[in-house]
Design brief:
alpha/beta; about 250 residues; Rossmann fold; binds NADPH dihydro-nicotinamide-adenine-dinucleotide phosphate
Length: about 250
């Protein structure tokens, strides 16, 4: 416990993968957690169940982050249930890979809607509502920097998230709220593993000098640092959590 027992954290896309690990870690650190999900209701309730089984406090909250009204309702629900919001972790995201030549409009529009507009929607609510002393942590990606073929649209959405991170730091001057981004490298979740041949997974696993894939808990540790008391002086930074890949 870090003493943050009265602090409330919204984690988007927290039913599965990295988001679920972040939700469970923050709950273990004493935060009350809003476990946001889009479609995975049962998984979100399971995350809440695991948190409560360890003595933590959490609720599940359905909202498609690309829907501004739904995001506003989620913040309303958090404020009604717990009195306010202190931490936003913008974790919800999708990844669709294709070269620019082979990318269709749906690939472009869907990633912009969830990764970029979705982050914008939650950041806008957080900018209006976060309590003094709050923290915002946006999930970028180490593909911003690696720029491999096939990642153009996905990387563009994450570069946009990084840009909003840097601007928002300045817009929140005077409110004692930090805004940072975590940029994971390949991490063992459905987003990374699904649809990739084993040979590609093997190659990407060996890319980091630490010679393994990131685990959701590795990323949750970095988020917990930025959300907790030890991260108080870190502001406007992009922290690459990737085992040394770049
Ligand atoms: P997963 O595919 O495992 O999980 C994605 C989560 O995002 C799900 O919980 C899903 O919710 C949620 N989500 C998707 N669309 C929406 C939406 N419209 N509204 C609300 N929630 C939504 O992905 P990861 O855990 O791997 O990814 C988490 C974040 O980390 C993403 O932002 C990703 O870009 C980033 N990242 C991941 C890396 C990796 O290698 N895994 C590397 C670098 C960055 P539901 O199931 O309810 O639909």
């Amino acid at each position: 416990m870090n003493g943050d027992t009265n602090k409330v954290a919204i984690v988007t896309g927290a039913a599965r993968g990295i988001g679920a690990a972040i939700a469970e870690r923050l709950a273990g650190d004493g935060f009350t957690v809003v476990v946001n999900y889009a479609g995975s209701a049962a998984e979100a309730e399971a995350v809440v169940g695991r948190i409560e089984a360890k003595g933590g406090k959490a609720i599940a909250a359905q909202a498609d982050v690309s829907d501004a009204a739904a995001v506003a309702r989620m913040f309303d629900a958090a404020q009604t249930a717990f009195g306010g919001v202190d931490v936003l972790v913008n974790n919800a995201g999708i990844m669709k890979l294709a070269t620019i030549a082979e990318s269709d409009d749906a690939l472009f529009d869907s990633q912009i809607a969830v990764n970029l507009k979705g982050s914008f929607n939650t950041l806008r609510e957080a900018a209006k509502r976060l309590r003094e002393g709050g923290r915002i942590i946006n999930l970028s990606s180490s593909v911003v920097g690696l720029y491999q073929p096939g990642y153009a649209v996905y990387a563009a959405t994450k570069a946009g998230v990084e840009a909003m991170t840097h601007v928002m730091v300045k817009e929140l001057r005077g409110r004692n709220i930090t805004v940072n981004a975590i940029a994971p490298g390949p991490t063992a979740t459905a987003l990374f593993l699904d649809g990739k041949p084993q040979s590609v997974i093997d190659t990407l696993t060996k890319l980091a000098p630490l010679e393994r894939l990131g685990q959701p808990e590795d990323i949750a540790s970095a988020v917990a640092f930025l959300a907790g008391p030890d991260g108080a002086w870190i502001n406007g930074q992009v922290l690459r959590a990737n085992g040394g890949i770049i």
